[in-house]
Amino acid sequence: MSPPSYDGTGIEFCTIPSFKFLSGLSIDIRVAYRCFNPSAQKTVCIPTCYGGRINTTLSFTAEDQALRPYRVVVVAMLGNGESSSPSNDPNFPKDLDYHDCVNSQYELLTKHLGIEDLEAVIGFSMGGQQAYYWACMYPKFVKYAVPICSSAKTSLHNYAFLEGPKAALMNSIDYEDGAYRAKGTRPSRGLRAFGRTYCAWAMSAPWFRERQYERLGFSNVENFITRNWEDAFEAWDPEDLLILARMWQAGDIGKTRGDGDYLKALESIEAKVLVMPSRTDTYFPPEDSETEVQHLKQGELAIIETVWGHMAGGGLNEDDTHWMNDKIARFVGTQPSLVGKFKDSKLE
User: Fold this and answer.
1) Spatial separation of the C-alpha atoms in residues 222 and 206, rounded to whole Å
2) Predicted pLDDT of residue 4
3) How far apart, in Å, are the Cα atoms of 100 and each of 62, 247, 290?
4) In this prediction, what percent of the chain has a pLDDT beyond 70?
């Protein structure tokens, strides 16, 4: 989760005039991004995830990490509060689609940054869904795609999970059926209820049983829920959370085709795809990833063996991050010497 304090280090903005959304609306938008290793020749794009900001997103660009040799562009997806969103643009549309996010990122990369192709698109959670959309929408532009703890199509179970936090926020007394804005108030109780409802889904039952929250510095589970989840979501704009949740629920790469068939969409992907689910993810389970890989022309499955649930892919657990780093390095062909310090017993 994002901490309440915001870090804007290195963030730049690109204005796209008259950007046309899938809904048909055209408005000027702003896309936030950060470039790491800008002088590198090959480029990797990393879109943000739900609840993520640019500077809380794993970039794998530190010394000896997998993407150190690459120019890495971390992009805030539309709706996240950094790029154009309900919170910063009163003309922003009521609904958003992954097509909009990927098309805005394509314009940023090609027209603003002058990038002619991508070595890879890598993303966690909603960022991984964007990686899948990238591979379908711009097949000649992307060489590798790496969805982490994600899916090509949001499952019905995943959809139902999101209804809980949404309902907690929208039915709170201070959300006032959306009238809070006109009154100049903020639905803090609803936002905190959103975080409390979300919390258990992000981790696994073994994670709680083993009291792994103590490794994060929390003395008990209530302290973890309050300080890590309630505080984090209270810092977000409620309409940003809701528009992103609806987009997540509607995620389906079948929509990139005329027939709507997501399995055929998977079969059409030309990029090499490394699919990395977490063994204990409750809403992007590895079984869904196994199905996806069966339909990919060049798919590889690498399951993160962890108790850290969905958040294993977000960088909370150092061991899982090291393991993912090594897998990504091998997949995109980074020199082994650059990732030697991250060799892990799981890989031997």
Assistant:
1) 17
2) 62
3) 30, 10, 28
4) 95
